Amino acid sequence: MTAAILPTATFRRSDIRLFLDTADVSQWSNLLPTGIFYGVTTNPTLLERAQVPCDLPALSKLTQTALQMGAQEVQIQTWGETLEAMVTTGRRLANISDRVVVKVPITQAGTTAAARLVAAGVRITLTAVYAHPQVLIGAGLGADYVAPYLGRMTDAGKDGRAELVAMQQSLTGVRSTTRILVASIRALEDVAFLTTQGLDTFTLAPAIAQALFEVPETNAAAIAFEQAAQRMGARSDGVGNG
Description:
Elements: E1 17-21, H1 25-31, E2 39-41, H2 44-49, H3 56-68, E3 73-77, H4 83-94, E4 100-105, H5 108-119, E5 124-129, H6 135-141, E6 145-148, H7 150-155, H8 160-173, E7 179-182, H9 188-195, E8 201-204, H10 206-211, H11 216-231
Parallel strand pairs: 1-2, 1-8, 2-3, 3-4, 4-5, 5-6, 6-7, 7-8
């Protein structure tokens, strides 16, 4: 008896969300087509590195490019020297697309701005998280994400992995829907470990993302498979030579 083939729609991805942490469109072009990345994350430092102006017209164009390449979310950081400026800029960024998530630093002023943005229906990531108790701010506000900097926490003398596990335990304990968006990742081994502890959302620099595909044994096996296929008469168009 032939087994029934289930329609594709019955299958779903896991709850993992991987983001690309860059504003470099050439890196998006290289990695977004793999289909494994939920979206992209940016901030003013990454914009400067990619030579993208930190203004609304440039960010609107950048967002549309990311969405056209398959991103489900684009995270852009608000800015401003005053509370009012951060709120105004944040609302304008959110108006670019309903798939924009506005990033706000988790300072007191930033949290106040985030509270006003949340009240206006804007989706929020609280960023630059360095301490375990800070995730409670995100839970209290109902932020979509809080973004701790794993590598920088470790540089500051903390056990970054342990801090992140404790953050997740706190959010789980209060039944918060806020996701921990792990940033400043230096090694894929950290991602693999943290997924065993219940964390499921990560933003990867291009070099770290590329490392997912640079396992020598896997690449050698793929070459051997192709060589065998060619020896057995395969053609590049997928049709046999017979």
